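Figure S4 source data
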Amino acid sequence: MVIIILIIFALVAWFIWYYINQKYTSFVSDHSLALRELQEINEKYSFAKIENFDMEYSYDNQAFYDTISPKDYLTYQLVFKKKEVLAAIESASENRGKHIAYVDSINKCVLGRYDTDQFPTEQDKLNKIENRLFNSRIKKPTTALTIQVCLCLTKINGDRITYKVDRFDSVAIKDIVTKLNQKQGDFYLNDSIWQSICRVERGKVSNKMRFSIYERDGYRCRKCGRATNDLEIDHIFPVSKGGKSTYDNLQTLCHRCNSSKSNTVERGAINPKSAWQGVKDVCENCGAPLVKKRGRYGDFYGCSNYPKCRYTKQITNTRSLK
């Protein structure tokens, strides 16, 4: 019985508090001159909505997790998202310029002014509610783009073990994009950029994917046919030459065969996910497309991966000039 009385008393007290609070809130909303001025300012200033580019990726392989840094992962993703990210940085910069004028305008609003002399009795409560409503209606646009990258180490079933996080500001992002744009054909001139991309691409081969490839290939080396306990996953078209970590570009090799193959491209192998697929004339060394060039002795075909690959071919015949 006592408990029921206490519950009833608490409910009555809450309803009284709610009624009084709503009464003050309604008064402020209807009569505050500062809130009206803020509304006019908000209608005058519009800010661009900035997309959230924060990234998270999980690795179930300790070696890949230890090797790949958040900066590596961001670099890899910027290959595909750099236009959108740069546009967002520009929009954030425009927001920043507008926001300075916006803040100057709202700082001129003076609280505690109303269009009536009939005030509620508790002035402190009135002031607190006006402050809360005023601050809640101030626009808070994104004025600087940052990207947080979180890499997680998990068990093969997905349970998280640990993680590492880094955040990159617009200066760091633009620096990466500048280096990504330093290309000759499909070859990145900055070696650290290319190494970052390769590390992330190799890291896409999860342990779950690895065992799936083993099962598909019957737990045997696809080159020598042996069923050994030193099987490894090989990229048919090497990552260092633009190959991707996709099922159709992965095969099971024993350690001996994989070591002897290294990063060479076996004759007849193609990159199934390469942008070069379908190109008629490709380099016999790395598989990149050949482009027509003019030299001292006339026109010739050269590898688009130059200067990393210096393969050339005469136009008049198929003999290689190396």
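Figure S5 source data
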Amino acid sequence: MSRPVVLFLFGPTAVGKTGALEALSDRPIEIISADSMQVYRGMDIGTAKPDRSLRERLPHHLIDIRDPDEQYDVGAFVTEANRAIEAIHERGRVSVVAGGTGYYFRHLLYGLPQAPPSDPKVREQVQREIDRMGLAEMHRTLASVDPQAALRIHPHDAYRIGRALEIYRQTGRGPSGFAAGGPARADVAVTSCALDRDREELRSRIRARVESMFDQGLRHEVERLVDRGYGPGDPGLRAIGYREFFDAAGGLRPAEEDEAIAAEITGSTRRYAKRQRTFFRRLPRVLEIPAQEVSRVVELVDRLCDCFA
């Protein structure tokens, strides 16, 4: 093949993507993680990272590449994913981009939004307003000018709130007003596959996953991160499964509140999964496969691997 062969394998949280990858572990493929939080070191349980055993059998890229206090955005993902796709292709293997961060898939396929570059003067002005008014008020300001962006950006995400308002101040349009770079790219041969489950079954799996995370020691993982100096203002700890452990003042909530914390994580995860399903269904030319029918994913990958035979 003159072009890299790429499979997009996506689906909502807890649908069973890792189980599908387990079934593919002996195929000539490599995985590129499209998960915005699995990039962070030390955040294993709460992000449901593939375990070491699977990662030893099946090469994974873009996992454990940042510390929790480092910003990681879609531009960095697209750059690093494209680099990995080329290297995997040179090894005669198929790239499987797997995860649940929808806008990573969209921008890897269609290109980055054509928003203007950062203007230091505008950035400084926005930052002064954040310092003076607080993130909550600035997030409300963003919601008034770009509701879609405000839904996508967490109220504690100072970097993305600031960048979104900076774009609006420069152009009169928020980030949602900028389309992706253009039509679907033609330099790679992309096949898109979405895993899904019945709504109630998915809700049950999310609840079971959260319970399992606490059994595995999620609280201890958060405590270790706090001991290392990380907190709720850092990009990594703004993720679902971590931010719920902190109170409004940024302190760690006591273990006596773990039942309530687990319920909050479950609710947030269910809402996120709903948004994921909506997003993935809007992508064109997607093969939908029930997550229970893993053999169909294996057959699909085998056909793609035949391109190199």
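The chain has a mean pLDDT of 92. The chain has two domains: 5-113+180-308, 120-177.
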